[in-house]
Specification:
heterodimer; A: 520 residues; mainly alpha; 4-stranded antiparallel sheet; 26 helices; 62% helix; 3% strand; B: 426 residues; alpha+beta; 5-stranded antiparallel sheet; 3-stranded antiparallel sheet
């Protein structure tokens, strides 16, 4: 596997040098040849691992025992490195550990090819790889951690003992992990704040004159930052060498299916434009909207206004359920006019942003409706906002009142609140679905508000929402994909047949992928 | 001093006078050019103008101070926003290959808006402000200024009154201008303590250990809390606000306090009782024991909009811009006079235009200096302008701005020397 333009590294003893440490920064790409079968198998396995990383990250607290145990089990099952070997300093403990690290190395680089193509894919890939790296790094012994740092040129200065004692109180009060005893026992590093943004953001560290003071134990966050930055830059570089890779007909179908397996259900393809009429929205909001959208709709009706965050979250959701641009404009306009905005002002100030959402302005990006992850994790609401995820962002008391108002049973409410307490927001919403639709088991794994809507319509036996959403959309994309590939293949009919065969094989494999991901 | 009967309908007449005779162009250019240390810094800066009838134009850029002046005098913008320094001249962004036109640098900025405090002020709401709630801005400035200097090490901070209901902070240090979007949002989050929307009752939650930053901020809040919250806002007096405060206190302490408050009506004493309860709880339990600090912070701590600070390309109202609704000039604030700053005494455009008219008599216009050369003309116009603003209430604000620029200039000088030294090296 040669990538154009990359330096070749000349190693004296390739085997032990390259995989001499269980954790790596993936700085150098693999230089060997592998079979197509191994290529596919490695990629699919890593994708499964990353999907587990994502799920486990939502269901459990990162770093907790359940979290680590689940990841360890998954890594073991998929033959990835999962525990530092006790005698790592000696020669590698035999081919099996070596094989795991090699698989880890190669599969990472393959997935880079698939996930470098768009902003969303990159963001997802980086997030899971960072989480995986964090889990592995934390499992290392201290000497191994130090070794990893030095191998990767992270040298920061330590502060003198006098300076440390002078800052004793501040250092102890800045961090959970620092007590009077641990303060004396370990070194503190002085790091420019730009290199420790996660610690600064969460205020978990002492900051003075632009420098953070980090105990040796916490250096992991720095390392993660570094890892994330390097990966981000590499993905940008990889995107540039994609055309060369895509010209290889053996690889292109697999890479596309790998990235679609995640993105296939982004609800950006409007399947049912115009099937919903504006006067249905009020009743739909009570029956089939997830709580976040129901809340936004109610606020909109009550205040005749929504702030930017709410307009985006709700507006894109409405686009996803099938509102056309004209309908959307009419919807927002008629509501805003009832408030403080006159028709003129609406046309000047707000119409632009509605059209922007539909990809008709500016750089013409057709924005995709927000997934649950996005709603939960980004842009938290502040004073005057009504967006966000009610299970995540509302006070439990207020949430309880709201659910009571919406006639959810008392036992149902306490089940939901339990889930919220355990930070299982999407599961709480799923429970809300089950209670409001009067069914035992939702039979789907909720990760998108539009998915909630489609499932609700399905459960209510409706035709308006477009049943079978996800899978059908994916098949449509597949078919379009294949016809495009066939067109692109120049040359004889023989080549076309070969391509079609390859696609078929890949489609079979990816159907397995599909069913894997759609299990709850 | 009243606003001299400012009427926004007069803007079309006042703005030309303002831009021709009063707007401090040379100081403005001196600021945004940053000593000429980096090439094309001024030329690649985006400005946006809001013109008459709400026409909004972006991606304005200028090659020289003169060009900036001419354009502004021609367009007479109602509002001026400053954006980022881009990779190319913003006015030519359409000619640049898509994807390569990027925002590179900008000052780190903060926007504190009084409407974000509506749930904790009883005197006003929405766009209104009064001298009672203005204290919130004073507290915000004190806390943020300290943190940006002491914690983050920034030195070149410019605080500006927005013209109506808030203040802006421009952090102009070189390091600040070069910060990535992720870094900016990290700084803003470090500075954020009040979290939650309408649906959240308790917006500040503190756990042990209390970070030094929070301690320092509390020290500053305490200086103002008694007068501002207990007396002026009367948060423990009126039943409605008392209930809100009590809802932030854990149940056991709350019940006790409700009992005491039946007999004790004085706000100062009531607050002392609250603090006593908190101290007691801190001695025993590990949860919810810092409620007295949480109350102080929820009512007084600065609320900033992270989104304003986050984006490198975010456009923010320019200093010396006019606020179309109030007519007030967005003036820089001298923190040495922060305690006596009165937003209602900030000059309006109609006020300073009138002051200019009044001072017309007895001026030596330097007509003898009307030379044909362009150079002389420019100097004469500038000298005239300097005499002009000095005759108005704008003078002291421009003077303060000059001092701010002098402070920055010292660092530019160092940079320029460094650069010229490097060039001589082989």
């Amino acid at each position: 596997m040669q990538f154009p333009g990359r330096r070749k590294k000349f190693l004296t003893n390739p085997q032990t040098e390259l995989y001499g440490h269980p954790v790596q920064f993936y700085g150098e790409p693999p230089l060997e040849n592998i079979s197509l079968a191994e290529f596919e198998a490695f990629a699919v396995d890593r994708l499964k691992l990353l999907k587990t990383v994502e799920n486990v990250g939502v269901s459990y607290l990162k770093g907790s025992n359940q979290y680590s145990d689940k990841l360890t089990a998954e890594s073991k099952m998929l033959n990835f490195p999962y525990r530092p070997d006790a005698d790592d300093k000696k020669a590698l403990a035999g081919p099996s550990e070596y094989d795991k690290r090699r698989k880890d190395h190669i599969s990472h680089f393959i997935l880079r090819l698939a996930y470098c193509q768009t902003e969303d894919l990159r963001r997802w890939f980086i997030q899971q790889e960072v989480d995986l790296f964090r889990y592995r790094f934390n499992a290392l012994f201290s000497e191994q951690k130090l070794e990893l740092l030095h191998r990767n040129n992270l040298q920061y200065d330590t502060i003198s003992v006098e300076e440390k004692m002078g800052l004793k109180d501040e250092l102890i009060n800045s961090s959970y992990t620092v007590s009077a005893i641990t303060l004396e026992q370990q070194d503190f590093y002085k790091v420019p704040f730009q290199d420790a943004l996660d610690l600064v953001r969460a205020r978990k560290v002492y900051l003075q004159a632009g420098y953070v003071y980090i105990p040796h134990k916490d250096i992991v966050t720095i390392v993660l930052n570094d890892f994330r930055t390097r990966l981000s830059k590499s993905l940008a570089l990889t995107a540039r060498s994609l055309p060369a890779v895509h010209s290889d007909e053996r690889l292109q179908p697999l890479l596309n299916h790998l990235s679609h397996a995640y993105v296939g259900q982004d609800y950006s393809i409007q399947k049912n434009v115009g099937k919903i009429s504006l006067d249905q929205i009020d009743s739909l909001s009570g029956k089939s909207f997830p709580l976040c959208m129901r809340q936004l709709h109610q606020s909109l009706r009550e205040n005749h206004h929504l702030r930017h965050g709410g307009r985006m979250q709700y507006g894109l959701f409405l686009k996803g359920i099938g509102l056309s641009l004209e309908q959307a404009l009419q919807f927002w306009r008629s509501e805003f006019i009832r408030g403080k905005v006159n028709a003129d002002k609406f046309d000047k100030a707000y119409a632009y942003s509605v059209r922007h959402m539909f990809g008709k302005e500016g750089k013409r990006t057709d924005y995709t409706p927000y997934s649950c992850m996005k709603v939960i994790l980004s842009n938290p609401p502040s004073q005057g906002d009504h967006h966000g995820c009610p299970f995540r962002h509302s006070d439990p008391e207020l949430l309880k009142q709201k659910l009571q108002f919406y006639k959810v049973s008392a036992s149902g409410i306490s089940q939901i609140l339990e889930l919220v307490k355990g930070m299982h927001f999407q599961l709480a919403c799923q429970k809300y679905f089950e209670l409001t639709h009067n069914i035992e088991d939702a039979n789907f794994s909720l990760n998108h508000p539009n998915q909630y809507f489609i499932e609700s319509q399905k459960a209510l036996g409706g035709g308006g929402g477009g049943g079978g959403g996800g899978k059908e959309i994916k098949r449509e994309v597949d078919a379009a994909q294949r016809s495009q590939e066939n067109l692109a293949t120049r040359g004889s009919a023989a080549t076309q047949e070969a391509a079609a065969d390859a696609s078929k094989g890949v489609v079979e494999m990816t159907e397995d992928l599909d069913s894997y991901f759609q299990d709850a | 001093m009243s606003s001299q009967n400012y009427d926004s309908a007069c803007l079309p007449d006042l703005l030309p006078l303002y831009y021709r005779r009063l707007f401090p162009f040379s100081q403005y250019y001196r600021w945004l050019n940053y000593g000429g240390v980096q090439k094309n810094y001024f030329q690649n800066r985006e400005f946006s103008f809001t013109l008459k009838d709400d026409i909004y134009v972006r991606y304005q850029s200028f090659s020289t101070q003169t060009e900036l002046e001419k354009e502004m005098q021609k367009m007479n913008p109602y509002k001026i926003d400053i954006g980022a320094i881009y990779s190319h001249r913003p006015s030519q962004h359409n000619t640049v290959k898509s994807g390569t036109f990027q925002a590179l640098e900008k000052e780190l900025v903060f926007d504190i808006d009084m409407t974000d405090y509506d749930d904790v002020r009883s005197c006003c709401s929405a766009a209104d402000i009064c001298c009672k709630c203005w204290t919130l801005m004073t507290i915000a400035i004190r806390i943020l200024d300290r943190a940006l200097r002491d914690d983050f090490g920034f030195q070149q901070l410019l605080w500006v009154y927005s013209g109506r209901r808030g203040v802006h902070c421009w952090v102009c240090d070189e390091g600040a201008r070069k910060l990535s979007s992720a870094a900016r949002s990290a700084v803003a989050e470090y500075l954020s303590l009040v979290k939650g929307g309408d649906e959240t009752l308790k917006k500040v939650v503190l756990t042990d250990p209390i970070h030094p930053f929070i301690r320092e901020s509390l020290v500053l809040v305490e200086r103002y809390f008694s007068r501002y919250a207990l007396q002026e806002q009367d948060i423990l007096g009126r039943k409605e606000s008392l209930d809100k405060v009590l809802s932030l206190i854990p149940e056991d302490a709350r019940k006790e306090l409700q009992q005491y408050f039946q007999n004790e009506k004085k706000p100062e004493t009531r607050w002392k009782l609250v603090k006593d309860q908190a101290v007691r709880k801190q001695g025993t339990s590990k949860k919810g024991q810092h409620f007295e600090k949480e109350i102080m912070l929820q009512y007084c701590y600065p609320r900033l909009d992270v989104n304003v600070s986050k984006g490198v390309n975010h456009l923010l109202k320019s200093p010396f811009s006019v606020h179309p609704k109030t007519g007030r000039i967005s003036v820089p604030m001298d923190l040495k006079e922060l305690e006596t700053f009165d937003p209602f005494a900030v000059p309006t455009i109609s006020q300073i235009c009138e002051e200019l008219d009044r001072a017309k008599s007895g001026e030596e216009d330097g007509k003898s200096e009307d030379a044909k050369e362009k150079e002389n003309e420019k100097d004469a116009a500038e000298r005239r302008r300097i005499r002009d603003y000095k005759r108005t209430s704008l003078a002291k604000y421009v003077k303060y701005f000059d001092q701010f620029l002098d402070g920055m200039a010292r660092s530019w000088k160092g940079e320029l020397l460094k650069k010229s030294d490097l060039q001589k090296d082989f």
